[in-house]
Design brief:
single chain, about 850 residues, alpha+beta, nine-stranded mixed sheet, six-stranded antiparallel beta barrel, binds zinc ion
Length: about 850
């Protein structure tokens, strides 16, 4: 048991032999747990079993779980902290308890891993006598080697299951120690390392803080694979194990440095190694870079790695290569890495090069901010500066904080948050309903928060008004002209969700009629109708008829179902790297955003459109199933990347063609969609494309209108448009050539006239005339012709275009007149200014009526300045 793969396998095999069912690692994106950003322990997928919300496949379970810890990302690079790691764990759901867990752990560590029992130190919660007795009985460890530590208590939150735990430490030997006589497990020196944590989940803490015993006691254990591997491979740090060394090596090769030669470079190499693993696994599990949530964590980690790459002297993109090493190392254990290799590397490289473009400028600016702060004697970077780095140069605030700290400065985080809030406020002001909804939050809290949605099967229902809100307050009635929100006990109105817009329609009884303008779900399970009272009045408690605009809903359903067919067709024709990245489903159009790295060609678009229409004609029946997330995935359903799903999910299928997890409303059969046409395709961000399309009547109307426009064009062109347009273009080109030729002829004949009117001054030919020219450009062309003809001379031409006078002055070589000075002098007369070179200058002014006077000054000017 030497390599990390052997350790993983040995662990799972050991527990399999002890009647445990091995569960595959769940995604880093937790399913159905909105309280958690990323999976951070093996327990996450076991939690529903512990809480009795789901039935486990057996009472004994084991796993190797991909985990991500987001705390202290900015300290990674020291030898201890990791972001991504793997956790080995065994779990008992109401089966064995303390003694069993201790016996398994002890046997694995001493028999399988081969640790010297004398170097293993159990620790327990100070008053956990049950664990104390179990340790002695099962392992024979003497009482003085069982250490009582008050930190040995586990809880997931202030309310919920909790209990004492027992951590097993390994003694690395006195050479790692601090030498203090009190040195023992719990000491902050690196001698005693925590290897395995056994959690005895035996209590439940309620809202008042009181503990009560759980009816069913559980075991949850966790052991970091990296640390165990380090000890078994006898390495000083995890970075020297086979889990990290090849990644470090790759980064060192790219940078042209050697690991172990310089502490500062080593630090950066460790950052790159850890973060390469992190970004690879995050992207593999569907996280994409963004400014929010998981996407922001990915962005932070990736950008921090780029920065440390620069510190190592790497100027090009390199994370795609280190990610490649991660995939090579881990692909056997985690096949999703191999399946998505291209996608992973592409996403990483694109984000890396995006940040790389602004990094240097941002770093310069930061240096400037730091210098300014120091000069002003401040110990803090201004929040507005930090925000500028964030907003314009893509510096995650945590990165700026880290860089500032290296320079001995703090960061005004409050100021940063304020600048951020101000920008959000501006964005929010644009969405009026959003602002109103926020204001109404307090009112919602006073309403029943469970509204049943009837609209999958019905478009009208008799219901009761259980809440009315106007201006953020609960009201008892609303009268004609009032606008506000109505909550019904149950409703057929679909609230905006999953890209599908909210329903509109009517809520009415014999006393009053309200028009429903929109339906929203501002908090989970609360459906709110935004209404305007058209006539009469409605009272809280009224029984009403709620009627959805059926025609509009049907058109929404056609577009939503078309979206599902489109999603499937995209994956068929472009490849399975296509993932939905967003959608809008409205009665008159649909919009579908998806991951893809180049423009979709017209041929591909045509094929996709044809594929969707083929499935429409196949008239596939819709099937809707409520099932579990796992079963839906097993049935081949497409789940949205990064979307959280609850325990029960709704799966919408069309024949065998498409299955998606979806809460929206759909047509009965694909034939109901009628027709499908793609209107446009474009880029909406790095690696994300957008297709806009129409279904049903809007699709037919679109085609009809395009054909009508084409027909109108044909009749105006008087023939087949493609042929006629080609002929017209050729004709136009010929005409342009003729016009240019005529212009030249005209200029030549004008030049001839002007030459005849030229004045001779001491052997110099002076032309000063007003001509018809549409632009300065034309004046110059004409001037060129004249200059060539006069040989020794001065040419000044003036014209009025767009109501303003303009002049061009030219002087042949050796005449001794400066064209720029001449232009400037003459321009004064037309109320303007001029300038240029000694041989060519121009001028403009504001008084067109003075142009002739100005031109009349040329001859006297030449006479006065000649020979000076
Ligand atoms: Zn110590
Ligand atoms: Zn859907």
């Amino acid at each position: 048991m030497k390599t990390s793969s052997e350790i993983r396998n040995a662990f799972l095999r050991f527990f399999q032999q002890k009647d445990h069912i091995v569960l595959p690692s769940s995604s880093l994106v937790p399913e159905g747990d909105p309280s958690l950003l990323l999976t951070n322990a093996g327990m996450v997928q076991i939690k529903p079993y512990f809480l009795g919300q789901a039935t486990p496949p057996g009472p004994r379970l084991a796993s190797v779980q991909k985990c991500f810890r987001t705390v202290d990302i900015e300290t990674v690079g020291n030898e201890r902290n990791l972001t991504f790691f793997e956790m080995l764990g065994n779990f008992s759901v109401g089966d064995y308890f303390k003694e069993g867990a201790i016996a398994f752990a002890w046997e694995f560590l001493t028999q399988q891993a081969g640790f010297d029992p004398k170097r293993l130190w159990p620790t327990i919660y100070p008053d956990d006598e049950e664990a104390f007795v179990a340790w002695q009985r099962v392992t024979g460890v003497p009482a003085e080697r069982i250490i009582r530590l008050p930190d040995n208590w586990w809880e997931a939150g202030p309310v919920g299951p909790n209990g004492p735990d027992s951590e097993i430490y390994y003694d690395r030997g006195p050479e790692f120690g601090c030498g203090r006589p009190t040195c023992q497990p719990g000491c902050d020196c690196p001698r005693f390392l925590e290897v395995w944590n056994l959690v005895f989940m035996q209590y439940y803490r309620d809202e008042t803080g009181a503990l009560s015993p759980l009816p069913r006691k559980n075991i949850d254990t966790g052991m970091g694979l990296e640390r165990l591997t380090m000890l078994l491979q006898d390495k000083r740090t995890v970075y020297e194990t086979d889990l990290f060394a090849p990644i470090i090596q790759k980064a060192a090769d790219i940078a042209g440095v050697r690991y172990g030669a310089d502490e500062s470079a080593d630090y950066s190499l460790r950052v790159v190694a850890d973060h390469s693993r992190a970004v690879t696994f995050l992207v593999a599990d569907g996280v994409l870079p963004s400014n929010e949530g998981r996407g922001y964590i990915l962005r932070r980690v990736l950008r921090r790695a780029v920065r440390h790459g620069r510190r190592l002297g790497i100027e090009r993109t390199f994370l795609g290569e280190t990610a490649g090493v991660v995939i090579d190392l881990m692909g056997t254990t985690y096949p999703e890495l191999v399946q998505r290799r291209d996608f992973i590397c592409k996403v990483i490289e694109m984000e890396e090069s995006r940040f790389g473009q602004t990094l240097a400028v941002g770093l310069n600016l930061l240096d400037q901010f730091i210098a300014e702060a120091r000069q002003a004697g401040r110990t803090e970077l201004a929040g507005s500066d930090v925000f500028r780095l964030y907003d314009t140069y893509g510096f995650p605030v945590e990165l700026t904080t880290e860089l500032a700290r290296e320079a001995g400065l703090r960061v005004d985080l409050e100021g940063f948050q304020q600048a951020m809030a101000e920008q959000r406020e501006k964005a929010r002001a644009a969405s009026k309903f959003g602002a109103g909804a926020r204001q109404n939050a307090e009112a919602y809290a006073q309403l029943p928060l469970e509204v049943e949605f009837l609209g999958y099967t019905r478009l009208a229902a008799t219901s009761q008004i259980v809440g009315m809100i106007m201006g953020g307050r609960i009201v008892g009635d609303m009268a004609a002209g009032d606008e506000g929100e109505i909550v019904l006990r149950e409703t057929p109105f679909y609230a905006e969700a999953g890209g599908q817009v909210g329903d509109t329609g009517r809520i009415a009884n014999e006393r009053g009629v309200a028009e429903v303008l929109d339906t929203q779900r501002p908090v989970p399970n609360l459906i709110v109708h935004r209404v305007r009272i058209l006539e009469g009045a409605l009272l809280a408690g009224d029984i009403v008829e709620a009627t959805v605009d059926a025609e509009r809903r049907a058109s929404i359903a056609r577009h939503h179902s078309a979206t599902h067919l489109l999603h499937k067709a995209l994956r068929e024709i472009l490849g399975t790297h296509v993932q939905q990245a967003g959608s809008l489903v409205a009665p008159d159009r649909l919009r579908f955003d998806f991951t893809h790295f180049q423009a979709v060609t017209p041929e591909e678009l045509a094929a996709i459109e044809a594929r969707v229409n083929e499935e429409i004609r196949a008239n596939l029946p819709r099937g809707t199933t409520i099932t579990t997330y796992q079963e839906a995935l097993a049935a081949g359903a497409m789940a949205l990347f990064g979307e959280k799903y609850g325990e029960r999910v709704r799966m919408v299928c069309f024949g065998d063609y498409s299955c998606e997890l979806c809460g929206g409303t759909h047509v009965e059969r694909t034939g109901d969609i009628g027709a499908f046409v793609i209107v446009s395709e474009q880029s909406v961000g790095a690696g994300v494309r957008r297709i806009e399309a129409l279904a049903g009547e809007p699709a037919v109307r679109f085609i009809r209108e395009r054909l009508a426009a084409f027909d109108r064009m044909s009749s105006r062109l008087g023939g087949e448009p493609e042929v006629r347009v080609q002929a017209l273009l050729e004709e136009l080109q010929a005409e342009r050539r003729t016009v240019a030729q005529l212009r030249r002829q005209l200029a030549a004949s004008q030049a001839e006239r002007l030459l005849n009117e030229a004045v001779q001054v001491d052997g110099i030919t002076v032309v000063s005339a007003r001509v018809d020219a549409p632009s300065t450009e034309a004046l110059r062309e004409m001037g060129d012709v004249l200059r060539d003809r006069v040989q020794r001379g001065v040419v000044v031409l003036g014209s009025v275009f767009n109501g303003r006078p303009g002049l061009v002055a030219m002087v042949t070589p050796g005449v001794g007149i400066n064209a720029a000075d001449l232009a400037r002098t003459v321009a004064i007369r037309i109320g303007g200014s001029g300038g240029g070179r000694p041989d060519l200058a121009q001028a403009g002014g504001r008084h067109p009526e003075k142009l002739s006077e100005a031109l009349a000054e040329v001859v006297p000017y030449v006479r006065a300045h000649l020979g000076r």
